[in-house]
């Protein structure tokens, strides 16, 4: 499911993020010799509703951008049907871990094992006398995978691989030169869910989904200003002279979110005996004007907007302005394309 999590292969690669409110797609060209990554196309198409027919129509619309004749795409899954666990096991060969997990995996997965597909990644050898290793275990309900595969098939596409949203995000984070080994966190604030991920020395050790997202901010704005959801969405990005009022209206929602974030950070710090020193913010809600400063104030932490689309080389035909507008929405799809 997520083998070779940070490996980039040459060629023309498509990443498609089927989110909770839109479908996002990017195509990357990876040079064979240099390994340079170039963004050659991207698109974001909102759903009219969460009905399957509307999601399928959005997929078909973005699929028109695909220049790869094979129609192979990398996709991902997320939500309550996805279980992620970080576990420790005695140091052993991969094939021995596979055998051991056949008997141990039931301890960590709250589903009938016949209903899930699971995979694992060896992360690191722990610095401990008993020489244990840290393993990332992921399980996904088969029905979710089958639904995604059928959606792609109905759109004339073929899944090349299926990953998990949070690990696609971490994959795109590898575009940033890692000069420090201190712990950092990534917050991906989507429409319905905020994904919290923590990394140390460039490797993940924690992730959690919180069911607070951009739509909750929109609801607060709709109620606070008595405006339509469509106007509220625009208002989040361009509040003009009412920015101060806007911050006051959304602060209760962001405060609730920050309680969950701080709880997660406290858990992380207890695990590694080090504080989270920097927070990178991405996802569609990163477009909310000044949200990095608001979160920095509430969390008392260094929070900065992170847009992986701005790090990539891009084809000259692409609109710089449009990419700046859509960039934070493309993090998952970029990470998927980088999987190769």
Name given to the CATH homologous superfamily of the largest domain: ATPase, nucleotide binding domain
- Tally of DSSP helical segments: 10
Number of structural units classed as domains? 3
Structural class: alpha/beta
Largest sheet properties:
5 strands, mixed
Give the strand order, joined by hyphens, for the main sheet: 11-10-9-12-13
Secondary structure: helix percent: 25-40%
What name does the CATH topology of the largest domain carry? Nucleotidyltransferase, domain 5
Low-confidence segments: 1-10
Please state the overall shape, judged from the principal axes of the Cα atoms: globular
Q: What is the C-alpha radius of gyration, as a whole number of Å?
A: 20 Å
Element-by-element helix/strand order? EEEHEEHEEHEHEEEHHHEHEEHH
CATH A-level architecture of the largest domain: 2-Layer Sandwich
Instruction: Say how many strands there are.
Output: 14
């Amino acid at each position: 499911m997520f083998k070779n999590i940070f490996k980039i292969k040459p060629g023309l690669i498509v990443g498609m993020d089927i989110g909770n409110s839109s479908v996002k797609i990017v195509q990357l060209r990876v040079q064979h010799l240099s390994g340079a990554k170039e963004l050659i196309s991207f698109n974001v198409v909102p759903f009219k509703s969460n009905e399957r027919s509307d999601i399928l129509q959005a997929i078909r619309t973005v699929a028109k951008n695909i220049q790869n004749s094979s129609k192979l795409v990398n996709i991902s899954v997320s939500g309550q049907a996805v279980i992620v666990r970080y576990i420790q096991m005695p140091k052993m060969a991969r094939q021995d871990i596979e055998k051991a997990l056949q008997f141990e995996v039931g301890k960590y997965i709250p589903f009938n094992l016949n209903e899930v597909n699971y995979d694992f990644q060896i992360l690191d050898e722990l610095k401990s006398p008993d020489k244990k290793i840290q393993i990332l275990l992921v399980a996904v309900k088969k029905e979710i995978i089958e639904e995604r595969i059928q959606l792609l098939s109905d759109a004339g596409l073929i899944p090349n691989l299926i990953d998990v949203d949070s690990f696609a995000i971490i994959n795109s984070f590898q575009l940033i030169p890692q000069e420090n080994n201190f712990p950092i966190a990534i917050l991906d604030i989507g429409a319905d869910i905020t994904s919290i991920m923590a990394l140390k020395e460039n490797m993940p050790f924690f992730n959690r989904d919180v069911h607070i997202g951009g739509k909750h901010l929109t609801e607060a704005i709709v109620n606070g200003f008595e405006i339509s959801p469509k106007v509220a969405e625009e208002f989040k990005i361009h509040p003009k002279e009412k920015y101060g009022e806007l911050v006051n209206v959304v602060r209760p929602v962001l405060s609730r979110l920050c309680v969950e974030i701080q709880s997660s950070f406290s858990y992380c710090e207890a695990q590694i005996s080090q504080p989270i020193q920097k927070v990178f913010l991405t996802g569609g809600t990163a477009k909310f004007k000044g949200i990095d400063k608001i979160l920095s104030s509430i969390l008392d932490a260094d929070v900065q907007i992170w847009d992986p689309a701005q790090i990539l080389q891009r084809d000259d035909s692409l609109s710089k302005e449009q990419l700046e507008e859509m960039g934070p929405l493309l993090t998952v799809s970029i990470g998927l394309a980088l999987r190769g």
